[in-house]
Amino acid sequence: MLFYQVKCIVEDPGWHGPSLETGHRVFLGRAGTAQLRLNGRLSLVDATAMWLTRPGDEMATSHPHGDGDVYSCLELDPEVLAARPDTEQWLHRRGWWGSADGRLDLEHRMLAAHCRRGIDQFEMTERLHRFLDRLLSRTPLGAGEPGAELERAVGRRPATLVAHRRLAHRAREVLVGSDFRLGLTEVAEQVGCSPHHLSRVFQRVTGESLTAYRNRLRVRSVLDVLAGGDGPPLGEVAAAHGFADQAHLTRVVRQQVGHPPARLRRLFGDRTGVA
């Protein structure tokens, strides 16, 4: 297996590709945003996203908001997937995308932090295998599929489905590109609808509330700050990310990843990782 990180620097924000994938790869978003077209399906990928490709999948990307997005990539040997009891789910399925929960994202970032500090090949291989097992075991077969709730709500009318998905897509773009201090009314104004309609549609399209999605983005950004070593006081981190105060920051981060920010800052500097 091979694990590495990529920061996209592009001169042309338009579409690049499509190209055919030649191996099994898992991508995990870290920061920023891009457009992904995988086997003809379009998605916005951000710091909460992860997607898997296999040989023969067709993938294209664009960066309509400029460069600077960062992702990690885990290249998998087919033998590793073939040895799993659920091999058919991963070795032969078409390319897929979904979303990493907070705890899995923390494990991803801890793995990256250990690799940056320098560990030997033996330890790296063991950590990669443990991380892959947790990643695949937490990923449901149906991930990435359109929500049945949305189709029931709009009576399977294609034009309405497209419009609702476009609205949710645009709301995600606004939130990703914000400094997390925009209110719901301001987000709704930017996408051209009422807060009530936006909240209802976003829940139906994505399966989560706008608040939950915004919190996941905020926690990802906070983890980047904490992983950087000695940084600003937590009160300043809370204010910069739109939290009410340090207590609010601590509560949301603990809910998402299982540890408070102060402990995470120590763990990112500890070779032993998350207990």
UniProtKB/TrEMBL annotation:
Endpoints of the signal sequence: none
Gene3D superfamilies, per the entry: Homeodomain-like
Recorded superkingdom: Bacteria
InterPro entries: AraC_XylS_family_regulators (IPR050204), Homeodomain-like_sf (IPR009057), HTH_AraC (IPR018060), HTH_AraC-typ_CS (IPR018062)
Pfam families xrefs: HTH_18
DNA-binding keyword on record: yes
Name assigned to this protein: AraC family transcriptional regulator
Residues in HTH araC/xylS-type domain copies: 165-267
Keywords, ordered alphabetically: DNA-binding, Transcription, Transcription regulation
